[in-house]
Structures are given as structure tokens and as C-alpha cells.
Amino acid sequence: MKMKKYTRTHEWVEIEGKAATVGITNHAQEELGDVVYVDLPEVGKEVKKGDVVASIESVKAAADVYAPLSGKITEVNERLESEPELINKDAEGEGWIFKMEISGESELADLLDEQAYRKLCEQK
Amino acid sequence: MKYPYIPHTEEDIREMLDFIGVSSIEDLFSGIPNSTRSSLNLPESQDEFTVFDQLKRISEKNVDLEEYSVFLGAGVYKRYVPSVVYDLAMKPEFLTAYTPYQAEVSQGTLQALFEYQTMICELTGMEVANASMYDGATALAEAVLMCFRLTKKEKVLVARSVHPEYREVLKTYLETRGFKMVEAEYDEAGRVVLEGIDDETAAVVVQYPNFFGVIEDLDYVRRRVQNTLIVVVVEPVSLAVLEPPGSFGADIVVGEGQSLGIPMWLGGYSLGIFATRERYVRQMPGRLIGETVDVEGNVSYTMILQTREQHIRRSKATSNICSNHAHAALIASVYLSVMGPEGLKEVAKRSYDAAHYLQEKLEEKGFRKKFSSDFFSEFVFKVPEDYPEKWKKMMKRKILGPLPLEKVYPELSGTALACATEVITEDDIERLLEAMG
Predict the structure, then answer these.
(1) Nearest alpha carbon to residue B238 among B265, B269, B216
(2) With the C-alpha atoms ordered A27, A28, A34, A38, is the resulting torsion angle positive or negative?
(3) B158 Cβ partners below 8 Å, 6+ apart?
(4) What is the pLDDT of residues B311-333, one digit of tens each?
(5) Which of A37, A61, A64 sits opposite B312 (nearest CB)?
(6) Interface of chain B against chain A, CB under 8 Å?
(7) Which residues of chain A have a pLDDT value below 50?
(8) What is the reported pLDDT for B50?
(9) Apex CA B30: angle with CA B24 and CA B33, to 5°?
(10) Which residues of chain B have pLDDT under 50?
């Protein structure tokens, strides 16, 4: 049973059991503009919710990507090393950034559903 | 009008003060407590003629090194600079304080910096060079911090044969941040001995030629170092005749670029050289100029990878050095293009020959060389106990003699560091030998 959630810092996270895939939202890539570089995390790294795990550089800005939940990085999207523009093309699909194994479900409550996230974007 | 260079009349001033509701100019400074206001102790104003006369008299206290025989190097060198270098580099267009972030109005400056970067890469054998840093010492400190960022380790091994002031600056940078700095000794040959490189060591720092003028064996350094980064401090003129550090697997090359056409200027301002491998470019501090094409396909230049810098990344910037010594880099760019590879080789060869001739002459008079290794244009030799006093007396005879080393290397008391560059003549050497007694 997959579910998709969002953070206030504009990450999306798709969760299935203990496995989670993380990227930045379409709204975030629009704000950033053309992405030219993605600094990926190390596989095997333990992270806490809210830690900076990756950073994305566009032609005009640099933005950090935060861990939406605590856990361990299990995989990174290596295609982004040579094709950082995937984030602009398909932020919430092929432009995923990393996968992680989450350590618990207690933090899930802090995440936003699609409706709440949309509302957040409209307020900005 | 009260002040001839301020265009506002008394009425103008009154009107402005009334508008903002303040009764006098003095009131504008009411926020500054009297106790902290300083008068700078300046004398009363005088006419231009008198002021110039006074300043001239003060400036006459300086000596003109052109009249001196200079055997003192240790990081700053007296060299010959063809007059065309300053004719070009001192053009008023180049002397603005304007910073070239706006590519459409800075093509000249940007191209000069791009050419400078290219020539530094050629000299050092590296893949990418930044548009310069403040000086050799701060370039080294930034290089070590970059190694810590790249390796996530916190210890650096620095050869004791690296310039003592560079090591001091490095210590200042590292101490407050809690990083660890360990010294590597030198042997009878004057070369570094690398011991104790462990998994915690981020980088090894050597100087080539080192502070003693000795040409370090970079092949030995490469063989001793496995999973640790290599930082090499260079003197750029020597690289015209020495194998560049890039050929020995150096990861970062830094150095003082004063030799490249910049006057001695009392020790500054100068030019910090910084070059590295392309794979590390995102962790490199400083500005970087790139070549591209404009919308019409013309070659043009612009600052690149600015996301490393403070105006974009703010507190998370790669380094807080996001500026450069653009004018010093420009002088170096002009000097190198005037000299060309052959000309620079000539400068290096003449320096090498002059220094070796001087060493032979000193040896003939009984002043023995301290280290057995070959050197570039500086060498350490043994001197009598009274040499430091003699050294001071030589200055009165317009000789800036070899540097007594006891203050910077207590273990080397009774030795001095001599330097000869391409400007040293037979006559200079005769004068020194006579003064040495």
C-alpha cells in the first residue's frame, strides 16, 4: 500500500512499508529554475528527520534537501549526476533523489497530505 | 561655501536639516558616544604645496631597493619586470574597484583573469585554477580547509620545511576550528620525512622548492601517501624548469605569485595562486572564470559555479573568500604573456645559475652549505655566531643579506638563508663576500 506525503520544506516522499523514495516537489523545481547540479548523499548514511541530506544547484540558487523522516539511505539516483535536468523534467518521477529505509512510523504524522501541501503553496 | 569640495550651500544644509527635523549636523552623530569619537590627531589643514613637501620628507625614510644588492628571498623576490608590463597593467580602465560579476560590461577583465587561470594550470600541471586569492599563506590555509571538506577528516601533516609564516597563518585558521596540525621533520638533505600518516590524515603539505630552497622529492611524497590528499606550495618561476606538481599526483597546488611581475611592495599586496583537479572544483574556494559563447555565438567570458559563493549560498558558502586579487592576477597575466614559456625558463635558469655561483663563492670562503640536496635559487649555509649583527650592519652598506634563521628555526641557529635571482650581478656577489668578511 503506497502513500505519498509532502513536507513543509517542499520534499515529496512515497512510502511503502519501511521503504521510502524522496525527491523535491514540482512546485520546488519551478521556484529553483534550471537545475545544473545535484549533490547526492552517501548510501548507508544514517539520517535524522530534518537533516540536510542533499543539495541542488540551479543557475540562480542553491537549495538544501532535508530528510523527511529518520532512517538510512539505501540508494541514490545516479542518473542525476549526468542528467541533473531530470529534476526539472519530472521532479516527482524520474527525478527522485534518494531512497531510504525508515526507522519508525511515529514521524509520519508530521507529514502533509496532498491537499494540505497545495494549501501551503497557495499561501506563499 | 564653508567647504570648497562639498557642493551644498548653507541654505541647502539648513533646508535638509529642517526637513528631517534635526537642528545641526552635529546632532546626526548623537548616537556615537563622545568617548569613542577620535580626532585621528590630524594637524590643521594646510595648502597642497606644504602637505606634499611633508609627505615627501616622510617617504624619504623608505629605502629604494633598486639601489640595494638583495640576497634575501624567503617568499618575496626581487625580480626584473619588463616596463611594458606596467604600461599595460596600470591603464586606468584596469584600476577601477569594479567587481566583474556583470559579464556584459566586464569582458576585458574577465578575459584577462581567464588567461591567468589557463597559464597557472599550464605552470602547475593542474586542471583548474581560480582567479586568485590574497596571498600564498591564505591560499594554503584555504587549501587545507578544502581537504577537510573533501575527506571529512580533521588532521593535516605539514612539513616543517614549509615557510614558517605560512604555517603560522595555517595554525590561526585551524586552531579556532578545532582541527589538528602535525609537523613533519626534515632530514640531513633538507627534505621532508613523512611519518605517521594514518587514516585520520586529510592531507599532507609540502613546499617545492621548500623554504630552504631545497627541491623536494615529490615522487617520494607520492609513494608515501596512499589515501591522503597532497597539497604542494610552489614558487611559480621555478616551475618553468622543474617538473610540475601535477605530474606527481598533487591534489591542490598553491603558492605566492609575487614573482610574476608584482613588486615587493613591503610584502604586499600580492597574489595567491590556487589550482586543483577538476573533480574537486565544487569544493574549491574563490572565484572562477569560464569561457562560453553569447547568443550570437561569439566567444565570451563569465563567472561560473557561483553557487559555491556567498551571494548565493550565504552561510553555507564553500569559503568566505569570494573575492580575488584581480589586479595582481592581471599583472601576472601580462607578465607571463610578455615573458612566454621560453622567457620564464630563462628567468628560472638565470636564478638557478646565480644562486649556484653564489653558493660556490661562499664555499670557497669557508661558508659551508648546510643541506646536501640540490636547490633552486635559495640555500642554507653555515655562518659565524656574530652574523646576525653583521647582517644588520650590511644594510647600511646597501646590502640586504641572507636571512639569519635562528628566529624562525631555533635548531638552525648559526645558519642563514641566501637567495639569488636573475637580477643579481657579479658585482653584487663581490660586495656581499666582502661584507661577510
Answers:
(1) B216
(2) negative
(3) B167, B170, B181, B182, B183, B184, B204, B205
(4) 777 777 777 776 788 899 999 99
(5) A61
(6) 282, 307, 312-313, 316
(7) none
(8) 95
(9) 145
(10) none
